[in-house]
Amino acid sequence: MSTYYGRSSKDLQPRSSRKTLSESPPSSPSPTAKTFRHDRVTRTLDSSSDKVLGRSSSYTRRETRLTARNRQENEDHDLGGKDYRKMYEEALQENGQLKVRLQDSKHELVKIRSQLDKVTQRQDRMSERSSSHEAEKREKLSLEKKVSDMEEDLKVLTDLRSENQRLKDENGALIRVISKLSNQTPQ
């Protein structure tokens, strides 16, 4: 594991793609390479002193971002090899299917509610009919009672008529008897 000057091994993860100074080939360094190494060492030392003073250079911020990104990539690969993009696409597909099922369920619910309303209206009509049937039955019973009362009154009336006719006949007979008797009386 390699470390940079002024940094602990906790802050930086090792980079497998970058070669350390000890891994570089044993050729003589070019003047630009020497300058580059020297600049990097001085920048690292300067950044350490800047951190002590509460300042950080853009170089250290960039390095921090890169190490954080590498750390995140390593964590992503270390999490059991899960492909989050694939999982995301599967979740999107499942959400789409669930949305379609939800819409179907909503349409079915609307149909069922309309059917329930129709059945309720039918039952209301049936109950109205049954209540009107009951009212009709009561009215029919009362009418039947009136008819039977009228039939009895009619029987009484016919009896009264027949009795009245009999009385008229008796009255006529009495009138004839009286008139015969009055005609027979001496004058």
Distance between the termini: 177 Å
Low-pLDDT stretches are none
Order of helices and strands: HHH
Oligomer: single chain
Shape: rod-shaped
Polypeptide structure, described:
Helix content is 78%, strand content 0%. It is rod-shaped and about 175 Å long. It has a domain at 21-82. The protein has 187 residues and is an all-alpha fold. It has helices spanning 31-53, 58-78, 84-184. The chain has three helices and no strands.
Quick summary:
This protein is mainly alpha-helical and 187 residues long. It is built from three helices and no strands. The radius of gyration is 60 Å and the shape is rod-shaped.
Layout of SSEs?
Layout: H1 31-53, H2 58-78, H3 84-184
Features:
3 helices; 187 residues; rod-shaped; mainly alpha
